[in-house]
Amino acid sequence: xxxxxxxxxxxxxxxxxxxxxxxxxxxxxxxxxxxxxxxxxxxxxxxxxxxxxxxxxxxxxxxxxxxxxxxxxxxxxxxxxxxxxxxxxxxxxxxxxxxxxxxxxxxxxxxxxxxxxxxxxxxxxxxxxxxxxxxxxxxxxxxxxxxxxxxxxxxxxxxxxxxxxxxxxxxxxxxxxxxxxxxxxxxxxxxxxxxxxxxxxxxxxxxxxxxxxxxxxxxxxxxxxxxxxxxxxxxxxxxxxxxxxxxxxxxxxxxxxxxxxxxxxxxxxxxxxxxxxxxxxxxxxxxxxxxxxxxxxxxxxxxxxxxxxxxxxxxxxxxxxxxxxxxxxxxxxxxxxxxxxxxxxxxxxxxxxxxxxxxxxxxxxxxxxxxxxxxxxxxxxxxxxxxxxx
Length: 390
Description:
Major capsid protein gp5 fold; seven-stranded mixed beta sheet
C-alpha cells in the first residue's frame, strides 16, 4: 500500500510540472481547466502525504506497544528466575542446617573451617533488610559503602560565613568565606554471634530459616544501634554531638530549646530519640497547678506512632536513662549522621564448633564506622554532672 501511494504521489507531481511548464513555455496564464486540474492534483497529493504520515505514526506506535509488552515479560522472567534461585538456596540452606546436606552443596559457599558455610546471598539480603527495619537510626543515616578510609568534606559556616552586602560600582567586594573541614571514616571490624538450639532445628515443624534471619537481624541491629547512639571505642556515632542543652533535670523549656537548636531547614525529617523511662518522665511534666505541660500525642500516621512537639518519638532501650553526665535525648535529622560499611555483612553458620553445647552458631561479621557529618542537623539533651565511676 505504501509503495503504491508514493508512486501515485510522484505521478501527480510530474503531471503538475508538465501543466506548469507548458504554460511557461507558451508565456501565458493557466487556463481555467489547467487551474482546476492543478488544484485537484494539489488536494490529492496532500491527502496521500497525510495518509503516509498517519501510517508512519501508527507503525511507530505499534513498535512501542511491542516494546512495552516485551519489557514486562523480560522482567517477569527475571523475577521468576530470582524467586526460583531464592527458593532453591533457602531449601538447601535449611537442609544444611538440619544436617541433610554438607557444605559442598550447589548453592552454599564453604567458609574457613570444617562445617562452616556462608549464608546464601538471598538470605543474607533478608537479614540486612531486616537490620535496617529494626534500626531506624541506621536507616535514616547517610550511608556510604566503600572500602578503605573515607574523607567527607564539610563546610563549616560557624567559622566564618559568606558575606553578602550592598556595594558601589568600581569597588571591590570583600571575600569572607567559611572553612572546609574533613570528617574521616575508617572501618572497624565487629562480629555478632547467635546460638541456635539443635532441639529447635530438629523440630521439622520449626521454620529454621526465618528464625536465623530474625535472630541475626535482631542481634546485629541491637549492636549497631547501641554503637550509633552511645559510641563504642573508635566509633563515635552520635556521641560527639555539639549542639547540646545541659540541664539538671529535663523541663519543657529544655525540650523547646533543644528543638530550636536545629535550623528550620533541617526540621522536616527530624525525630526524637530517647529511653522509654525518659519519655515517661517527659509525659509526667506538670505545672504548679498540677496540669500536664506537654501531652505526647499518639499518631497512627507517625513512623513511631507517637509525636512530641510535632515530631515523631523513637524509643530505644539502648539510650541511657536520666543519669548525671549522660546524653539522654537526641533530636534532629539523622541524615546528619554518616555511616560507612567497608564490606557487606557476611553471615556464617558454625555447625560443629558448638556441638558440645547442642547448638549451632550463627556469626555475622561487619566492618563499619560512624560520625556526625553535619552538626547543624542534630542536637541533644545532656544531664549535668559527671558519670559515677564504676
